Amino acid sequence: xxxxxxxxxxxxxxxxxxxxxxxxxxxxxxxxxxxxxxxxxxxxxxxxxxxxxxxxxxxxxxxxxxxxxxxxxxxxxxxxxxxxxxxxxxxxxxxxxxxxxxxxxxxxxxxxxxxxxxxxxxxxxxxxxxxxxxxxxxxxxxxxxxxxxxxxxxxxxxxxxxxxxxxxxxxxxxxxxxxxxxxxxxxxxxxxxxxxxxxxxxxxxxxxxxxxxxxxxxxxxxxxxxxxxxxxxxxxxxxxxxxxxxxxxxxxxxxxxxxxxxxxxxxxxxxxxxxxxxxxxxxxxxxxxxxxxxxxxxxxxxxxxxxxxxxxxxxxxxxxxxxxxxxxxxxxxxxxxxxxxxxxxxxxxxxxxxxxxxxxxxxxxxxxxxxxxxxxxxxxxxxxxxxxxxxxxxxxxxxxxxxxxxxxxxxxxxxxxxxxxxxxxxxxxxxxxxxxxxxxxxxxxx
Amino acid sequence: xxxxxxxxxxxxxxxxxxxxxxxxxxxxxxxxxxxxxxxxxxxxxxxxxxxxxxxxxxxxxxxxxxxxxxxxxxxxxxxxxxxxxxxxxxxxxxxxxxxxxxxxxxxxxxxxxxxxxxxxxxxxxxxxxxxxxxxxxxxxxxxxxxxxxxxxx
Lengths: 446, 153
Description:
Chain A is an alpha/beta fold. Chain A folds into two domains: 16-60 and 326-436, Aspartate Aminotransferase, domain 1, CATH 3.90.1150.10; 66-322, 3-Layer(aba) Sandwich (Aspartate Aminotransferase, domain 2), CATH 3.40.640. Helices cover 38% and strands 15% of the residues of chain A. Chain A contains 15 helices and 17 strands. In chain A, the strands form five sheets. A seven-stranded mixed β-sheet of chain A has the order 4-10-9-8-7-5-6, with helices on both faces. Chain A has a four-stranded antiparallel β-sheet with strand order 13-14-17-16, covered by helices on one side. In chain A, strands 1-2 form a two-stranded antiparallel sheet. In chain A, helix 3 (65-78) packs antiparallel against helix 11 (308-324) and helix 5 packs parallel to helix 6 (156-165). Chain B is an alpha+beta fold. Chain B has one domain (3-152): Sufe protein. Chain: A. Chain B has helices at 3-10, 13-20, 68-81, 86-100, 127-152; strands at residues 33-38, 45-53, 56-65. A three-stranded antiparallel β-sheet of chain B has the order 1-2-3, covered by helices on one side. In chain B, helix 2 (13-20) crosses helix 3 and helix 3 (68-81) packs parallel to helix 5. The longest helix of chain B has 26 residues, at 127-152. Classes of the chains: A alpha/beta, B alpha+beta. Chain A binds chain B through residues 48-49, 373-377, 380-381, 384, 391-393, 397, 400, 406-407, 435-436, 438, 440-441, 444-446, and chain B through 3-4, 6-7, 10-11, 13-14, 16-18, 20-23, 41-45, 65-69, 71, 75, 79, 113, 123, 126, 129.
């Protein structure tokens, strides 16, 4: 990893990033952020008497009034179970729920709403696919290709599947600056590679991976490609047809929506060929005492009463994102990230992780460490200043090991963040450094 | 108490001293108790070596990776346990656990520098950082006693 460590009192110099980034005008934004912020009630609160600076968006994002209102509206006006009743409320609830399925399909440019399955989150979507597809399609010795930068949710389901089927996990390695070693792809992809499961954007490094290119290689040898879009779908325009991927998963709560909703996109023929994941109501066509036949896709994969209210509210989140525009959101975050990398790069003793911002390959995530300080201590002191960041291993322990660290601090941005907030982050980091460098008794060791 | 005062209380001078210059970091090759533990939530790891003489803890060394709170708690515990019997050590650990749960510590138990950790209670998410060390040592002492019983029977 590039390191910006300098000796005490020495200005940290050597980066081309500084020169390029000072040419940007950090205070110009493509979005009307002042207006956007008014839609998010939580952004008005204070934390320890300081205005909240929320920079933990890769963990979960805040919700606009429109999404919160949709929840209240559903429960106040048309709460009913879907697909069952013949009364007005059930009809209204079913129509609203299914409309969001169509909306979700449009949002990622899927050809049909039949290819969208609602789950609890991206993790469950991956588990659904791993079980429903993997257990019948993998034989001992078949290979699943993953990468070193995956979140645990795109590792552990495959470990379980490999254990159950005798399949083997193979890994695409990363470079020191946090990019996939794509040159290894042609060698790693063999006829026995049945699936490539890969993140579109690393939740630690911010790296945006060239999915279309990976899909081309994978399809050439007959492997399916599953894309973990939990970090990318909230921040960059997604077009599954352009990407060419077979499966794509994401979570609503990381894109202004409520918790408890995820989506699995898979090609219709693939979904049709798969066995169910969970059994129960809704997913059946007919049930005898000892056997059952399955409902059509996508309902075959939605056993039991789904998370109706939150799916409906997620529809409002999609509407909100579309109104602002995914391209505009991406541009705003690129600006913020460039500014943040410049300002953070000026801090003595900081190490920044992830690729150099030839910004097309980097999303709004900045992981960092400060010399001699553990990220948890940094997080606690930043919180005292009202600045919310993540500190820890980010559910990516293999990546932490690859980076040679136990944990990192991480700031992650969204459409409502501002350069002023980046300044608050930088000030808070400097305050944390000052706090921990205050002289102690400095006598003999204790 | 203002947030700044709470922070000063959390990171008291003695805590930062232990964090920055612990004299108990290291290893003891001939230690009878070698025990390690990790906190899966944050990735903190630590290993304790305890040199025993029968029921008495003669020397304690530790190494690991973690935040200031976990490292200081570990160093303080190591310092406090040296010379104590297993029973006294268990009493100290139980007292620290009670303290973290908001109870007043038993004044008859000498906590030494460990008392400085009282400020951690104001930061519930950080209690686990401090707790790792005593959970690890407690496990090590238990295993040691079990082995001794089995060897004796």
